[in-house]
Structure formats: structure tokens, C-alpha cells
């Protein structure tokens, strides 16, 4: 190998020279005692630890080893600057070498970790598992091992331990360390959100029994506020519920929102109702990164710069919206969206549970009142029948007894009305099925109906069916009782509708209609009959004497048929009051029947 004068001079000054290849290629002026011959580039690294080494000689035929040395050098640089922590440990877990990232996590950028225990440089973290002795496992079994460490600063590291496979270093371990703090905190936050969701409407039976509807709503609102503020760290919060019939977004909860914004009327419509209206109409979450450049945004607070809005969804139906705002631009990321969407589903389920509780309470209250009313309805009717019968005998004989009997009648009627009123107060309007309070049935409320039938089941059914729509129902067994009920009323037009069986124990429904005609200007009559049963063509005669063409019910009849007939008679009575027919004398046919 050719060498320059300068090269020869430098070699002559060397104390020890590492040789890769044939030592005969080294200049003759280098003493053999100063030459260390090695097999390859890997061995050079070990010999370089000797401070007496002044250089490395590579023979011409070993020049490819130069690229291997360069690779070793580059590998060291890569290990030093890897984003993961890397360390080499001896069998006593002392650090032989550590890269920069591990030193950074250990907080010791200047102090050398060499010779210190691995756990010590990480401030003795807690071992979370799954392997609680990962280093000893790797040394004992020769297999790789994994575990998670938690530091006092609530940082989490995943360590992977592998024994060196080189025979000369079999008692050394290579350790890689990854910072998984964000991942662990995400998992903990998700678990906390799910736990919070379960607790939103988690009420014990004793609590449900003791709390009114408004109190349960207030508790749910406070739980929502607590978890959104303390768990998710949202400071400006607005929740609105969608009124399905009108599309109005009604405020439920406002935290940090300006009062004018909280009172603002919004609808589930994509235009002119801000981000909240858009989300309610589309059912899709919306992230506003910068309110200045977002045409949909309507601020809830003056300093809002970004917002996040998600729908409250239950079975693909939008129940409302949750909106949060921040004074910082681009304050909400993917994790915030994920967390809020998860919690929004829990809120929707909690609201649905609360609605079911309200409906259940309403149903229980309604059933209780219905049961009480059903138990007293017919006995009260018996009191009414007996009272009017006795009063009929005392009229003109004892005014004091008559007055007392009238008070009995009023009090008996008040019993049923009081039960109905209590049931209405105990049953929240929003929990009652829509049909029961729809405008279609509003005409039946507070209308007085007298039902005359010898069949007790028919009288019970009349109470149950008609009173659910707000009618005031009284019953009589036979025609004479019905006449006394009408005559004993302060107003002859006391009853808005009178429903009678066509065949009564004392006479026919048609004859009752004629007798009632002597007491009332207009008889709002309905006749009930079985199919094909019409003794003496009573229905035909009744129609000839003013019975409405639709004033007939054929047993058995459905509830909707009963309601339709009653509404028809009520409408007909209104028309007759507005346009009264000319008075006429009773027909001979009527006189004949009356005397029968």
C-alpha cells in the first residue's frame, strides 16, 4: 500500500494501531507490539474503548469494511436521536447506555445515567403490568417481555425488554420505551365518560318516589353541567331540546352563555338559526374552527372564537343539541368531538329515561284515579237517583228537606269531579298521549252526559270511555229515574247529551225522548239498540219526532263510534241554539204514547 511522507510520520507517532486485514501491509516502521489485529469492523468498536488506540489501519483488500464502519456510526446516531427511548442494561439493571429521548423523559439532560438503576432514572415508577418483573423475566427466560410504568407525574411509559442474542453479551438487555400517556389518559377519560353517562339518570327507587318531575329534571341538569364542566373541561355550554311538533329548540341548560343568547328563539332549520339550528336539522355534528370565517355561527358569548355542536340522538331521532364554545381559535379537536358525541348519546338516553319515568308516573296516577273513580262512579249515581227520587216526593211539602237533597246532589256530583281534577293535576300534560288532549276531542271536555240503561256494564263503560275525554257522566237504570235526574237539575238543559237504550225496564227509549221533550226545548238524544232490534219501529218514530239521523248506536259499538255520535249531537245542539226551530204542539201520536 502506498503512503505519503505525512502518513508515515503520523503512523510512527502512534502508540497503538488497530489493523483490519493483513498486518504485513502496515509500514515497517510500526512496531508489531503496537499493532492490534481484528477480524472485522464490529470488533473495532470494542477495541476503541482502549484510550491507547491512535488509529485504524484497513488493508486494501478490506476497504469494503469502511462502509460497515460507516453503518455502525450511522446506527449510533439513529439510536441516539430516535423518538422512542432506548437503553442498554446489564444484569443488575444498571444503565450502560441511554439515548437522548430516554434522558429527556428522565429529566436528566446533563447528568449521565451510566451506572444508575433503570427504575431510578425514571424516579422509581409504579409497575402497572401485565408483567410486573419484565427485566428479570427476560433474563431468566431469554424471551422478550412488556410492561407499563406510571411515574409520580402521572406519565405512562410502555417498556419492551429483549435480551441481547450475542454470546459475549448474553447478560445484557436492550430496552425500548414509548410514552403512552396520551393514549392512557384517553382511555381513562372514555371510561370516566361512560361512568358519568350511567350516573346521569341513575336514581334509586327511594329517590324516584320522593322526587317530583321538576326535581328530577333539575338533578339531571346539574349532573350534565358537572360532567361537562369538570370531566370534559368545557366552560361555555348550552343544551336545547327539540319540540317535535313545532321544531322549536327550547333551552334546557345554559352555562356561561349570555342571557340574550340563552333566550334567543331557535328552530331546527339549516338557515338563519346558527350552528345549533343546522345541527338539529341535519343530525350531524359541526366544528366551527374560527367564528369569524363561519357564516353559520351565531355567538353565545361575546368573546367566542370557536365552537363545537353535536346532536342529541336517540334511535336516529334528534332530541336536541349540545353546544360548547371557546375564546380560542381552533380550540376543539377530534378527541373533543369524540368525547362530546359519546356523552351526548348518554344525555339523550338519560332524557329518554326521565321522559319514561314521567310517563310511568302519569300512567300510574291516571290508573289510580281511574280505579278510584270507577269504584265510586256507580255508587254516586245510585245516590243521585235516590236523592232525586226522594226530592220529588218532598217538593211542595218541605222546602228544607228539598234544599238538603239538592246539596246532596251537588256534593255527590262534586265527588266525581274532584277525583277527575286530582287525576289531571297528578298527570303532567306532556306525559299524556296526544290523542287525549287533541283539538279533535276538545269539544267533549266538561260536557254532561246522561246514560240510561239497565245493564250495569254499559253504565260502567260509559263512565270509563267518555270520562277519559273530560265528559261528566251520570247514569240511570230506567226511564223514570232519567226523568227525575233531569227534573231535579237546576237547569232543564243540564245534560248536553242523553244516551238511552231503546228498551228500558219501564218503557222504551223513544217514550223517554217524548217525556223529556216536555221538560226540555231540545232533547239531545241518542238511542242504543242491538242490530235488527227495534220494537214498534221506535227509531223511525223517534226520527220523525226530532231524533238526529245519526243519533243511533248499534251495540256493540267502538269507542270512536260513541265519540263521533256524541260530537254530532253536540254540534247539532249548538246549531239549534243559534237557530231555534219554531215551537209546535205535541202530536196526537205523542199524546197517545205518553198515556200508554
UniProtKB/TrEMBL annotation:
This is Response regulator MprA. GO terms for molecular function: kinase activity. The modification 4-aspartylphosphate is found at residue 501. The keyword Kinase applies. Residues 448-570 form the Response regulatory domain. It comes from Novipirellula artificiosorum. Signal peptide: none annotated. GO terms for biological process: phosphorelay signal transduction system. It comes from the Bacteria. PROSITE patterns: RESPONSE_REGULATORY. InterPro entries: Bact_response_regulator (IPR050595), CheY-like_superfamily (IPR011006), GAF (IPR003018), GAF-like_dom_sf (IPR029016), PAS-like_dom_sf (IPR035965), PAS_4 (IPR013656), Sig_transdc_resp-reg_receiver (IPR001789). Transmembrane segments: none annotated. Keywords: Kinase, Phosphoprotein, Transferase. Residues 572-596 are annotated as: Disordered.
